[in-house]
Amino acid sequence: MSAEGNRETLGFQTEVRKLLDLMIHSLYSNKEIFLRELISNASDAADKLRFLALRDPGLYEDDPELRIRVECDREQRTISVSDNGIGMSREEVIAQLGTIAKSGTSEFLAALTGDQARDSHLIGQFGVGFYSAFIVAHRVEVATRRAGAARGEGVRWVSSGESEYTVETMDRPRRGTVVTLHLRDGEDDFLDGGRLRTIIHKYSDHIALPIVMEAEGRDARGEETVNRATALWTRPRKEISESEYQEFYKHVAHDFEDALAHSHNRVEGKVEYVSLLYIPGRAPFDLWDRERRRGLKLYVRRIFIMDDAEQLLPPYLRFVRGIVDSNDLPLNISREILQQDRNIDAIRSGCARKVLELLAGMAEQEPEKYARFWKEFGRVLKEGVIDAPERRDEIARLLRFASTRTEADAQSVSLPEYVARMAEGQGAIYYLTADTPASARGSPHLEALRARNLEVLLLTDPVDEWVVMHLVEFDGKPLRSVVKGDLDLGAGDAGSAASAPTSSQEALIQRLREALHDKVKDVRSSARLTTSAACLVTEEPGLSRHLQRMLEASGQKLPEQKPVLEVNLSHALIGRIEREQDTARVADWAQLLLDQALLGEGAQLPDPAAFVRRLNSLLLNTDSG
Fold first, then answer.
1. Is the pLDDT reported for residue 386 higher than 90?
2. Confidence at 542, pLDDT banded by 50, 70, 90
3. Could you give the count of Cα atoms lying within 13 Å of 456 in the half-sphere of its Cβ?
4. Phi, psi at 278, each rounded to 5°
5. Percent of the chain having pLDDT more than 90?
6. Could you say which architecture CATH assigns to the domain 400-493?
7. Phi/psi zone of residue 77: left (φ > 0), alpha (ψ -120 to 50 degrees), beta?
């Protein structure tokens, strides 16, 4: 860092340098979005001033009419976007333009693929719209002053978008910010006022304050407002085009991609409000970042109050973007008051209902689009089964699962579909939880059900274990794990129970019990298996083996819960062990069965080396019995 008086030359944060390079190369085919992004930032600055001025009207100084101005200078080859919003201090300029003070930066960079189309979406999700100026500009200047600061506390920021930038204090009589772009060679078409007006109409017509330009035409004088300057959500739905809805989404969500669906609602009654809710087309890379605040923009009587008001939607709908504009909330409402206001409870409930209705309509009428939604956000929506018992049935109908009847690992089976094609006499909805789709499909616990053509849901998301703990039945049918308790596939489930063991087999089971008495709760014959020799099950109402492994991996200490070893009495290996007379070798065979069962459910062996030694010994000494 070097300093000349109050002028400093600072190096960009490493992440910013990478993003600038990506911005220029990934978004070059859509250069005109720079104007949309700069106008969107100016609009946000005006919203923040309007909110802060509710408590301190002096922040308006002598200029209460908020607006955005766009100008171009053909001789200087510059475009400028200015606002009289909140402005920035020197510290804010360095923090906001020289660094990315946002969690998940490393995850964002790791998510980049080199595919320009995909990376451009990620860049949009990350919210770095200011840097899009360097797509068309070889040099960018920012002049700004924080509202309420002295005129001598203005700040100038200048950069060529490479490795460094300069920042210095300046005299600036006006509050707000002006961003000036010195265009690259070959970008002169942006110096045409008509072209700029077309871009503003296309991307920013929804901005709720005037965007002004110098009037053009033979008799033109002064300035003219280019956009509608009316809050889009206040207009009747029939007057709003789909493209207008989509451009407003990109503004409110700072996204480069269209929303998947939207719902525009006006609610009247005890609580009056307007909601405009969007389902994004793609999950943000930091969706699972717990530190990231998410929510809707809150307005009160069309005055912006706050970003990311997370109290307006339940956590399981945290992917929804949009706005709520209420006529009943106080203008001085805070996040703390939001948690206690009864009107907020009504708004949250109403917004949640509208989102679920939107998803239900999409699932019924546009299944391919719903499949896209589920791929991106299904894991989040599942949390609603746990967090919202009052809407459990609604959410359950929206869930999608892989099953033994789906191709590959597509999560496409709904619970209503499963119930509709249940076998005659089938009394339960069967499911299996596992670590991976491969281990689920290869599980020995499915053998008897496959033999009877009984469909099983395959649940491999970490949240699924908690989902099935709360969703115990659907449409009057209990959900039943195929890895817990006795699996009675008798007449009630279109099959027959396992045949009773012979006296010799009973003797073998007893010998296996004695050999494994300190490791399993019991050994018994299995009605689950047709081709495998053994499997492990958990007694009801204990935790499933999969859930136990998940909790132990997270560091939780669990009370000892021994499994039950079930053996397939018709398997040739069990017949071989039955003929074994040597007690020590029976003990080795018993341990081998236990280790096989552990491997079959995807668990790790406690002593892999001992397993190898035991297996080799038994293989070398195996005879016909």
1. yes
2. confident
3. 29
4. -125, 140
5. 53
6. 3-Layer(aba) Sandwich (3.40)
7. left
**Distance (Å, whole) CA 354 – CA 262:** 10
Give the residue with greater pLDDT, 102 vs 512.
512
b vs e for 53-78, b when ≥16 Cβ sit within 10 Å of the residue's Cβ?
Answer: beeeeebbbeeeebbbbbbbeeeebb
What is the topology classification, in CATH, of domain 234-365?
Answer: Ribosomal Protein S5; domain 2 (3.30.230)
The pLDDT of residue 23: 65
Three-state DSSP state, 532: coil
List the end-to-end C-alpha distance of the chain, in Å, as a whole number: 83
Burial bucket for residue 101 (CB in 10 Å: 0-12, 13-18, 19+): exposed
How far is residue 42's CA from residue 91's CA, in Å, rounded to a whole number?
Answer: 19
CATH 1.20.120.790 fits 503-538+560-620, yes or no: yes
Report, as an integer, the average pLDDT of 15-21.
69
Q: Give the DSSP H or E segment for 596.
A: helix 583-600
- Of the candidates 200, 228, 197, 224, the one whose C-alpha atom is nearest the C-alpha of residue 212 is 224
Average pLDDT over residues 345-349: 93
Residue type for 498, please?
A
Instruction: Tokens for 546, please give them.
Output: 């999969």
For residue 335, pLDDT beyond 90:
no
Residue among 134, 174, 125, 182 nearest 154 (CA): 174
CA-to-CA separations, 388 to 8, 111, 331, 401, in angstroms, rounded: 53, 32, 30, 20
Average pLDDT, the chain: 86
Query: What's the fold here for domain 2-230?
Result: Heat Shock Protein 90 (3.30.565)
Dump pLDDT digits (tens) for 564-615: 999 999 999 999 988 888 899 999 999 999 998 888 887 888 888 988 888 8
Single-letter code of the amino acid located at 588: D
